[in-house]
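Review form for a predicted model. The reviewer records the input and the model, then writes brief findings.
Reviewer: anonymous (R2)
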Amino acid sequence: GSITVNTVIERFEEKNIFLRTSITDTGIGVPAEKAALLFKPFAQADVSTTRFYGGTGLGLAICKQLSELMGGTIGLESTPGVGSTFWFTAEFEVPEQLQQHTIMKTNGENLKSANGDARILIVEDDAVNQHLLKGQLELCGHNVETVADGTEAIKQLEHEDFDLIFMDCRLSGMDGYELTSQIRSSDSQVKNHAIPIIAYTANVMQGDRERCIESGMNDYLSKPLRVQALIEVLERWLPKR
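Model under review:
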């Protein structure tokens, strides 16, 4: 026979998520009148002295208690001679990052109509941070390009139109402050010297935000990414369509 295991999200409730896991086999199956007995201690579908399969009859009873302790339940669907599907549900607290993802997806739908399909450039040399920020912005329906250094950023800004820049301050080579200075300079060939620039940095020391603003940036977003702060920044600086 064969065994298949599958887990799906059954539902969300505030900050909790309910998962349903099913285990399906192609074994001997269980008669309907015996199914309820399987979840009782020391009970088995076949209690004859010629039983081929061993066991104490405690396994499913323990599983029932565990699933109930985890806010769920357990059950069985079976056809004799065909197989069985045992399933259980359990409640888990949603990780903060997934909560933020859900919040972002909900608010992103609202921002699509308010801000349109903005073109956003991320200047960030950390691949993980690039991916995280890009994903959240794309949930809002925006078109996002990423570059890893100041030189590439200048090239992009010289040839393409963007509505907003998210910039890491501590870039390797040309840092974010120097890059901002070049973008703002009338001597540079970028298309929009006044494009809104949002500092996206792990710096949390007192005075860091002030330094960003003094260098010519428009706003400041700290790492790790806070979804509500990102939403507020987009509302402040993206043009309404």
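Findings: The helical segments are 32-35, 59-69, 96-115, 127-139, 150-159, 176-184, 208-215, 227-237.
Further findings: Confidence is low (pLDDT under 50) at residues 47-52.
Recommendation: see findings above.
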